[in-house]
Design goal:
The chain is mainly alpha-helical. 47% of the residues lie in helices and 8% in strands. It is built from 14 helices and six strands. The chain has helices at 30-45, 61-71, 79-90, 104-115, 120-139, 169-176, 185-195, 199-203, 234-241, 256-270, 279-290, 295-302, 307-312, 318-330; strands spanning 3-7, 10-15, 23-27, 210-211, 216-219, 228-231. Helix 7 (185-195) packs across helix 11. The longest helix has 20 residues, at 120-139. The radius of gyration is 25 Å and the shape is elongated. The chain starts with a strand and ends in a 5-residue tail after the last helix.
Amino acid sequence: MASIRKRQKGWQAQIRRKNHPSISKTFRFKTDALHWGRQQEARIERGEQAAHGIRYSEMRLSDLLERYGQEVTPKKLSAYKEIYRIGRLLRHSISEIFLSNLRAHHFAQFRDERLEQAGSQTVRHDINLFSHVLKTAKIDWGIPISNPVQEIRKPPISKPRDRRLKPHEEELLLEGCKGSSVSYLRPIIIIALETAMRRGEILAIRWDDINESQRTLRIPVTKNGHPRVIPLSSKALTTLLGTPRGISERVYEVSPNAFRLAWERLRKRVGIKDLHFHDLRHEAISRFFELGLSIPEVALISGHRDPRMLFRYTHLRAEDVAEKIHSMQSTGKID
């Protein structure tokens, strides 16, 4: 049966059937949406091809966003993030504009409004998603539409974060985990600082990925699409093997959103401001360099294929370099 939901300017009927493309259409009146839904379902039952079936003159940007979210987004590694982003874009008034009326100034206005609410990098992600949706609609779905997003200026790229842990913050975080009701928080923080793994990579660790004898961990699914095997420190290996083993093949059976909420509660509980979980990756990579690891060695662990990108994550402290120089001078390694 077609699902009917209220939209800003009408009622949308949506039909999802196995082995059939999802179809939807928006109407001014609920009765029209119900009638169209019954018609399309009858066509499917008779073995006819249901219209993906909206005439171009009736298509809104929301129709493209919804189809993209159903057909393209689920194939992506970070699908859960994009699903959330699409949902937010669908709630914006720009999604209700007919494709035939869509112009660059609509996206420029969207950009300026969003910049008052979010950072430039977030807004760039929104704009890039719009652009890819329109490009997919034209190339893959045969919809005769231009891409006005290409005509607007994107916000400047944000300055890379250089946030590192202050001397007491690691201890604060780990101690704060004792007051948490979730057992996975402390080991995941330790793994992040010991391996420079991303949150999604850590949450996807499977028991079979751990090679205890070789002290390595295989990461089969990564952000850049290239699997890698990383060395494990004694602390990292002990932490992984010390995790109670359940029936799941994953070491940490927790969703990305549940972990995000647990991290935010921890950060607020211990009073640490402006610290993202991803900053632990920055911290770990910087520590690798401070230990004396070479660029190829650090790249092997972090997964960066371009050394220039690696430098963005490397935030050495001047006082630490000064101490290293002093130590080398005092031992006669340099004059």
